[in-house]
Every structure is written in structure tokens, then in C-alpha cells.
């Protein structure tokens, strides 16, 4: 799975969890955060920029929502 982020970075992973981890590690600021804090930060950014709440129950749901919002563009 490969995606293009809203800020032009290519991220990838063999699972949706790997994709989210690669997204987390794609910026210096987020790479050093704990997983729970990162999800809170991502959720806040999505709400501020897109007006939507992330469903954090499942990594597949998060990636699907990010793709629907245009935050991630699936490349393959």
C-alpha cells in the first residue's frame, strides 16, 4: 500500500497500521510522539482542517477516512 500525503510525501506499508506508522514518522514533530498522543494530534488536525472527527477504533477506519477526506491519496 502506497499513499501520497496532503503535503506531498509518499508513505507506504504492508498494512494500514504500517501506513499510519509511516505517516507518523514522516514528520520530525510526530516521529517522537507516543502513539496515543499522535492519534490525538492527527484527530485534532483532521477536525481543524476538514471539520471531521476520526474514528480511532480501528487503523483501517482511520486510513479509509483519511483517504475519503483527501488527506491521503492511494497510489497503488
Task: Compile the SSE list and pairings.
Layout: E1 2-5, E2 10-12, H1 16-24, H2 28-31, H3 35-50, H4 59-69, E3 72-74
Antiparallel strand pairs: 1-2, 1-3
Helix pairs in contact: 1-4
Salient structural properties:
76 residues, alpha+beta, 3-stranded antiparallel β-sheet, 3 strands
In short:
By secondary structure, the chain is an alpha+beta fold.
Task: Describe the structure in your own words.
The chain contains 4 helices and 3 strands, in the order E-E-H-H-H-H-E. The chain has a 3-stranded antiparallel beta sheet with strand order 2-1-3. The protein has 76 residues and is of the alpha+beta class. The protein is 53% helix and 13% strand. Helix 1 (16-24) packs across helix 4 (59-69). The mean pLDDT is 92. The N and C termini lie close together (6 Å). The chain has helices at 16-24, 28-31, 35-50, 59-69; strands at residues 2-5, 10-12, 72-74.
Our estimate of the beta-strand percent is 5-15%
Total helical segments:
4
General shape: globular
The share of residues in helices is 40-55%
From the alpha-carbon coordinates, what is the Rg to the nearest angstrom? 11 Å
Mean pLDDT: 92
Note the gap between the termini: 6 Å
**Largest sheet features:** 3 strands, antiparallel
The poorly predicted ranges are none
* Structural class category: alpha+beta
Major β-sheet strand ordering: 2-1-3
Q: What letter string, H or E per element, gives the SSE order? A: EEHHHHE
Amino acid at each position: 500500500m502506497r499513499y501520497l500525503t496532503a503535503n506531498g510525501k509518499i508513505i507506504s506499508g504492508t498494512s494500514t497500521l504500517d501506513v499510519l506508522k509511516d505517516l507518523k514518522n514522516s514528520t520530525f514533530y510526530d516521529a517522537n510522539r507516543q502513539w496515543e498522543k499522535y492519534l490525538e494530534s492527527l484527530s485534532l488536525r483532521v477536525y481543524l482542517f476538514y471539520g471531521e472527527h476520526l474514528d480511532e477504533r480501528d487503523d483501517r477506519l482511520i486510513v479509509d477516512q483519511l483517504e475519503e477526506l483527501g488527506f491521503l491519496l492511494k497510489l497503488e
